[in-house]
Structure formats: C-alpha cells, structure tokens
Amino acid sequence: MKSEIIAVGSEMLTPYRQDTNSLDLTEKLNEIGVTVAFKTIVGDRRKDLVNAIRTALGRTDILIVMGGLGPTEDDLTREAMAEALSLKLRRDATQMAALHVRAATWRMPMAENNLKQADVMEGATVLPNPNGSAPGQWLDTLFEGYRKLIMLIPGPPSECKPLFEAECLPRLRAALPPRFIAKRTLKAAMIPESQADKLLAPIYTTYKDVETTILAHAGDIQLSLLCSKNSQEAAQQRVDELASRMEEALDDWLYSSEGDSLEQIVLYYLGLRQATLAVAESCTGGLVAQRITSVPGSSRSFLGGAVVYSNQLKIAFANVPPDLIAQHGAVSEEVAKALAAGIRQRTGATIGLGITGIAGPTGGTDAKPVGLVYIGVSDAQKTDVLEHTFRGPRARVREWAAQQALDLIRRRLM
Questions:
Q1: How far apart are CA 374 and CA 359, in angstroms?
Q2: ∠114-115-119 over CA atoms, to 5°?
Q3: Confidence bin at 263 (pLDDT 50/70/90)
Q4: Which of 21, 136, 255, 276 reaches 20 to 30 Å from 13, CA-CA?
Q5: Closest of 282, 294, 303 to residue 351, by C-alpha
Q6: For the CA atoms of the chain, what is the radius of gyration?
C-alpha cells in the first residue's frame, strides 16, 4: 500500500527548520510493508492544507499528517482535515478533563484556546499523547468510495515518534495484510553518477518489483534496493538477486554490499592485512582522520597523523625536505609523495597518506588552479601519487579530496 506524509508548519518552508520526523516514520512504515510515495510540506494556511489533504487522499491509501495540533490560531490540522472529509468536530469531554488536569499538575492557568486540542473528528479514535498536551487521532474512513487510513500526530519529535510507534503502528499492522520488505544498500566510490546509471539501468529496470534509488554525494554513490512481498524469503531473494548483478557490473568501484561507510571498509582491510595507517593532511585539514576516527575501534589500525598546513610543519612532522618544497612548491606531486612516505616512516605505520592541494577560493594560478589536489599513498614497496582537479567551492574540494584519499587506500589494500 502507498502512503503519504504531510508535515504542517510554515517554519519548514524557511531556511531555518526542516522536517526530520518523516525519516523515522518512513523507516517504520517500510518495516511493515508500506511504501512512502509522497512527502509534502504545507504552511499554516487552512486552504492550502485542505487542498494538500484532498490531493493526498486521491493518490494514496494511508495519510499521516504531522503537526498543527496545538492550541494556537495557526494550528489548523484538525479543522482542515474535517473540512476535507466533510466531517464535524466535537469537543471531547475526556480530553477537556485531561487538559485541565495537565494544567493543574503544572500549576499553570488554563487558557481557553487550549481547549481546541480536545476537538475530535466524527468517527475518529483519540490517540493518547503522554509527552504533550495535543492527542493524535486515527480515522479509518472512505474517501470517494475508497478506504483510507488517516492519522493526525503532533509535530514535536519527542511526541511524534513515540506516539506513532505506540499507537499508530499497532493499528496499521492490524488493518493491513501482512507484507514483508527486504532492503539492501550498495555503495561505490569515485564513479560518476551518470556512468553508474549507464552501467546499472539496463539491469535494475528489468526488476519492476524492486524499487531502486541512486543517491550521489561527494564521490560516493549509494544504491538502495527495496522489495515488498508476501514473505520475507521472496522479498530477500529478489533484492539479493538484483544486488548480485549490480555488484558484478560495478566491479572494483563497489566498496560495500551492506551499506558500510568507506572509512569502515578501509579499517576492515587494514585489520584484515594487519596493517596500520598514518596521515599527513594539508588542504583537507584533518577530514580523513576525522572520518576514520568516527568509527569505533579505529585505534587498532589508525596510528594518527598531522595537519601539516604550513611548510614548516610539512618539514617538521613529515620530514619533507625544504629544497623539495622550494623547487616544486608545496602543492606538487613531489611533496605529496614526500608527505606520504615521511609520515609512514615517522610513525612506523604500514601505510602513509599525504594530501596537498589548493582548496580555494584563492591561491590558484594558471599552472596550479583552485581545486588541484595531489594525494600520495606509500607503503614499504612503493609510493603512488594521484593528481586531480576537483571543481566547486572550498568545502566541496575538501570533501572530494578526502573521499578520493580513502578510496586510494582501499584500492591499495584490496
């Protein structure tokens, strides 16, 4: 069955607030075999909300509306839903009493406008909210002759998530036929999104019962596979079959078949080879070390490193010869090679990584433009250097350089 989530609140149409509740709700819905077909954000305008509700009910079976259940003038979800369904609102005596008790418990005066939180749609079931004053509502009804399951739940995350899990999920499980969802996440590094889709589209488009999504970010491609069937075994078999074919097509671009991060895979290979790593970072400013040390247990394989931003620290911490910098410049293949080899020798690590570049927005020349990065990887046998010019603003250059560096280490260890 298809569902839609509507997040209500004008604040989410500004640059300062975003909807995060729907991520958790989507995960829970997927677990019971419900796919989320649409997510909509609507401001605090009754007419817009009524239109959004009617549109949602016309295209999905399950509608969840978050927010707009409070006591203020712009909390209009109850009124809008009642209007969209041509239902009346009744003021529930039990909820009114609960609001008075809550106010007394908190030793606060009860403003009259709080009572609108006790308004309940005809035919709806009140969903208790132990974490706030606004209860939710559940309605199993017909819209244009079709059955619809509707939930109104409060917007604050501390109320929304517990209420949905405690009150909505059990009702959904009881109302829906059993469905099982299987998921897989494949990840690939440093392959362009267009190239990945050219390789994979001829494969995944033949699996009409598996939903495939591609997400690209800073040199990382994430492929999410989702299939819903009458049994877990059937769903898993389809997802695994597709994943196997995609893994073969991606070849060594692929670094994870189970959703692991690139830094996790690097640490896995380091552990497998009983190897250690040290880094000397200039333009990335410690991003590689930060990513690696974000993984618990990384100290078993990661010795540490240095942010060698100045020439003096390149010389002092990574043993880069001063005349090498004078001859070739700090951003050069030769210095990247020396950084990688120097930090490896200085720390006694199995593998050394050196990064130097021009992250921008200033500092570039015709010969060495902004975005130029040299990445060196050194072990006891050899030291290799990759030159690449990354396009975009400073943060993007740094992110891509760190991703490329981790992928080079992975490939060295494979």
A1: 11
A2: 125
A3: very high
A4: 136
A5: 303
A6: 28
What are the phi and psi torsion angles at 300 (to 5°)?
-65, -25
Q: Exposure pattern of 90-115 as b/e (b: 16+ CB <10 Å)?
A: eebeebbebbeeeeeeeeeeeeeebb
Amino acid at 353: L
**Bond preceding residue 361 cis, omega within 30 of 0:** yes
Q: Which of 67, 61, 51 is nearest to 136 (CA)?
A: 67
Which helix (H) or strand (E) segment holds residue 347: the answer is helix 333-347
Sheet holding 277-281, edge to edge: 302-307, 277-281, 351-357, 372-378, 383-389
pTM of the model as a whole: 0.82
pLDDT in tens, 273-312: 999 999 999 999 999 999 999 999 999 999 999 999 999 9
Q: What's the angle, vertex CA 12, arms to CA 9 and CA 17, rounded to 5?
A: 125
**CA 351 from centroid of its chain's CA atoms:** 31
CA gap 270, 276 in Å, rounded: 6
- Cα–Cα distances in Å, from 211 out to 167, 177, 227, 247? 28, 20, 6, 17
Burial (0-12, 13-18, 19+ Cβ within 10 Å), 16: exposed
Within 41-192, where are the H helices? Answer: 46-59, 77-85, 93-105, 157-163, 169-175
Q: What is the dihedral of CA 95, 101, 106, 108, to 10 degrees?
A: 80
Residue type, 48: D
The tens digit of pLDDT for each residue in 342-361 reads 999 999 999 999 999 999 99
| Listed residue (191, 192, 350) closest to 255, CA to CA | 191
Question: Phi and psi at residue 386, in whole multiples of 5°?
Answer: -110, 130
Give the span between the Cα atoms of 386 and 390, in whole angstroms: 12
Decide if 355 contacts 375 (C-beta within 8 A): yes
Cα Dmax for the chain? 85
CA distance 8 to 97: 27
Helix (H) or strand (E) segment spanning residue 51: helix 46-59
Per DSSP, the three-state class of 12 is: helix
